Amino acid sequence: MLSFQATDLQDVVLVETGAHRDERGAFARLYCPEAFAAAGIAFTPSQINLSTNTLRHTLRGLHFQAAPWAEAKFVRVVTGAIYDVVLDLRPDSPSYRRWQAFELSADNLRGLFIPEGCAHGFLTLEDDTGVLYQMGRPYEPGHAAGIRYDDPAFAIDWPAAPVLISRADREWPLFAG
Ligand SMILES: Cc1cn([C@H]2C[C@H](O)[C@@H](COP(=O)(O)OP(=O)(O)O[C@H]3O[C@H](C)C(=O)[C@H](O)[C@H]3O)O2)c(=O)[nH]c1=O
User: Fold this and answer.
1) Domain residue extents for the chain
2) Does residue 133 have an active-site annotation?
3) pLDDT in tens, the chain (177 residues)
4) Which residues lie below 8 Å from residue 126, measured CB to CB, with a gap of 6+?
5) Rounded to an integer, what distance in angstroms lies between the CA atom of residue 2 and that of residue 173?
6) CA-CA distance, 157 to 20, in Å (whole number)?
7) Which residue positions hold the site described Participates in a stacking interaction with the thymidine ring of dTDP-4-oxo-6-deoxyglucose (predicted)?
8) What's the pTM value of the predicted model, to 2 decimals?
9) Which residues sit with their C-beta closer than 6 Å to ligand 1?
10) ipTM
11) Ligand 1 geometric centre to CA of 144 (Å)
């Protein structure tokens, strides 16, 4: 059911769900410890979150938790669609400072595994978009860090300007790494 595809970023993995589809709709497996272990990904969800977004072109992120509160996360869209961006902030990674974008949607049911040390953000592509997160560690308030979506250090190419973005996400300091 789950198939794993490497990306341009080290250890960031696209997960095709291989949903069973018929005239009623689809049935998809959203996580499987055996499949992750067989793919060499040490990841056990400890918290599951849902982000609902009313408007198209809502932007959330980019967020990460600095060590020792770094989080791995397995992200997928359950309604609507997003332009999902992962940015590698691991100085020892061959893809350090590189970003890559992925279209995740309720239609493709594609999942994205994001290891610790990467920043994550998305721009919704449809109204009423729901994003499901399976988190590798419990939330630690007060340790959120962020990268500004328009930081010139990374020149992330978004498909549209955000119509809705939190003040916190607008005001992250520019990257000084
Ligand atoms: C992340 C998180 C937040 N919260 C609380 C804290 C706030 O009171 C409220 C909203 O938090 P925030 O505005 O940080 O939500 P997002 O902007 O959607 O943050 C997420 O968006 C980007 C794209 C991500 O990849 C992260 O998983 C996550 O940081 O939920 C929790 O209780 N648990 C959590 O794990």
Assistant:
1) 2-170
2) yes
3) 899 999 999 999 999 998 999 999 999 999 999 999 999 999 999 999 999 999 999 999 999 998 899 999 999 999 999 999 999 999 999 999 999 999 999 999 999 999 999 999 999 999 999 999 999 999 988 899 999 999 999 999 999 999 999 999 999 999 987
4) 56, 80, 81
5) 38
6) 33
7) 139
8) 0.96
9) 49, 51, 60-61, 63, 73, 120-122, 133, 139, 144, 166
10) 0.95
11) 9
